[in-house]
Amino acid sequence: MRIISVKSWREDLGLLRPYTIASKGTTSDVSNIIVEIELENGFKGLGASSPTGPDKGETIERSEAVLQGSHLNWLVGKKIDSIQKISTDLRRRMFDTPASRAAVDIALFDAMSLNRNLPLVEMLGRHHHELPTSITIGIKPVEESIEEAHEYIGRGFKIIKLKTGASAEEDIEKILRLRERIDQSVIIRADANQGYDTAGYKRFIEGTRDLNVEFIEQPFNRDEIENMRGLEEHYKSRIAADESLQNEEDAELLATAPRACGIFNIKLMKCGGIFSAMKIASTARNSNIDLMWGCMDESRISIAAGLHAAFACPNTK
């Protein structure tokens, strides 16, 4: 079954609640670029791009330009069952725009699963039937964080992720006060967004040792992989690499013995979609690294794709 058309358009999306992180400031609204790939039989696969921002060189404007139909005409006439070859070519053509590449990649996999009349997770090889998920609270005053946490717990969430990184001492105090006000069964995760130095990270780990903090995402600058690798195992095993993990090459570097972290945070918008994500997941599994799956400010299209991939990996926790 061949591809007969590819088109894209922009969707502007509002957020239910603005959020603030250490490295980026406050976000209140977002835009996604939607990609549609149509097959000869009329099936239409959908993908979506949510660029990570100008600090990575890929803005929504660049994504919109890259995903114009004229730039994707090379896909027309390709057989959808040749997705491995198409994906390899796609990575070469759009390596520097991973979120845009992810939009095309997701639409390709969606079209192929529709054509095969199989859910994507079954096509990839299901390993899970259910997984826990977390909900994120941005950087804000303690009382507001506690109020928001209670709201989410009331909605059934059992894992709360706190954005941290502004100050290790303030973060420890916030988590201490939050833990005093919520049930011990609720798991807390932290995401420092590159906000700590080595001393600050160690203070945070020691200061939250008895507060049931599961792990901390990206405590250090994304380029400090060798610093991560040099930590004692009980420190680096708690690190979930996020900004340091952009693509398959980063995964190989992080996993090289001695490994630099205990967890990979895979995001389709960072790595370029399902094709690359599954390669990263394989690298992690071979090095006994667990997986979590995150997202940017995305539509349900790409979030659903990420869930299908997550359920297909045995090391997703």
Structural descriptors:
317 residues, alpha/beta, Enolase-like, domain 1, TIM Barrel, 2 domains, seven-stranded parallel sheet, three-stranded antiparallel sheet, 13 helices, 10 strands, globular
Task: Kindly summarize this structure in a few lines.
The protein has 317 residues and is α/β, with parallel strands linked by helices. The chain has 13 helices and ten strands. The chain folds into two domains: 116 residues, Enolase-like, domain 1, CATH 3.30.390; 190 residues, Alpha-Beta Barrel (TIM Barrel).
How would you characterize this protein structure?
The longest helix has 19 residues, at 98-116. It is built from 13 helices and ten strands. The relative contact order is 0.14. It folds into two domains: 3-118, Enolase-like, domain 1 (2-Layer Sandwich), CATH 3.30.390; 122-311, Enolase-like C-terminal domain (TIM Barrel). The protein has 317 residues and is α/β, with parallel strands linked by helices. A seven-stranded parallel β-sheet has the order 4-5-6-7-8-9-10. It has a three-stranded antiparallel β-sheet with strand order 1-2-3, sandwiched between helices.
Q: Which secondary structure elements does this structure contain, and how are they paired or packed?
A:
Layout (H helix, E strand, L loop, with lengths): L2 E19 L3 E15 L4 E6 L10 H7 L16 H11 L4 H19 L3 H5 L10 E3 L4 H13 L4 E5 L4 H14 L5 E5 L6 H10 L5 E5 L7 H5 L3 H4 L2 E3 L6 H8 L7 E4 L1 H4 L2 H13 L3 E4 L6 H12 L6
Parallel strand pairs: 4-5, 5-6, 6-7, 7-8, 8-9, 9-10
Antiparallel strand pairs: 1-2, 2-3
Helix pairs in contact: 2-3, 5-6, 6-7, 10-12
